[in-house]
Structure formats: structure tokens, C-alpha cells
Design goal:
Elements lengths: L1 H10 L5 H17 L10 H19 L9 H8 L4 H19 L3 H4 L9
Helix pairs in contact: 1-2, 1-3, 2-3, 3-4
Length: about 120
């Protein structure tokens, strides 16, 4: 991830805002999202390392457009990105919804039981 972020930093001045965001999303954000549902329940230190990488990426992407200081939350909000912990939770919720609504894949559907109040 850091290699691609550094490479993007070097070419960022030559890219439009849209191209910079697209490259960052396709090269680095996809790596943060890969199998991130497995990270549910991991230590806060591991999440912090991933969050620092995402914050660095947001600074690189927005460096050409914003000269003023923005907090990490504001940068992520401007890019319409979720924080790492929230991305993990979102992926789990989305996967669960798809399993319950489509009954596929069958091997996971057998493990989930809808909540039915007594």
C-alpha cells in the first residue's frame, strides 16, 4: 500500500482531482477492502495502522486541491470514504444482508438464523 501511495504522491500534480481519486481507490483502497471482514475483532493497534495508511492516502489525494489544514475525518468525508473500522462493519453487514435475502451461498446460509422475537 505504501509503495502505491508514494508513487501516487509523485504523479499527483499531473492528475486531475477525479483521476487522483480514482487511482487511489483502485490501487490502495481496494487493498484495504480485500478480505477486511476477517479483520473484525482484531486489535486496535492493527486497525490504527490501516487507518494511518488510509489517512496518508487521503492527504495525497487532496493535496493539490486543499491548501488549508483538514482533519482526517473531514478528508475522508470529502472523498466519501468510510474509516477502516466502519468499512469492516459495513462489509459484514452487507454480506449478512445478501446471505439472508438471497439464501446464497448455501453453506453460509445454513449458519445464519434470522432473529424472531418471542
Amino acid at each position: 500500500m505504501h509503495f502505491h501511495t508514494r508513487a501516487l504522491r509523485h504523479i499527483r500534480p499531473a492528475l486531475s482531482d477525479c483521476m487522483g481519486t480514482t487511482l487511489a481507490t483502485s490501487l490502495v483502497q481496494s487493498r484495504l477492502d480485500y478480505a477486511n471482514s476477517l479483520l473484525h475483532g482484531t486489535s486496535a493497534a492493527n486497525i490504527h495502522k490501516l487507518q494511518c495508511a488510509q489517512n496518508l492516502l487521503s492527504r495525497v489525494v487532496l493535496s493539490g486541491r486543499h491548501r488549508e489544514h483538514l482533519s482526517a475525518c473531514m478528508r475522508l468525508s470529502n472523498l466519501h470514504w468510510l474509516a477502516v473500522r466502519k468499512r469492516i462493519d459495513f462489509k459484514l453487514v452487507l454480506t449478512t444482508y445478501k446471505i439472508l435475502s438471497t439464501q446464497q451461498p448455501a453453506y453460509l446460509c445454513l449458519l445464519l438464523f434470522p432473529y424472531e422475537p418471542t
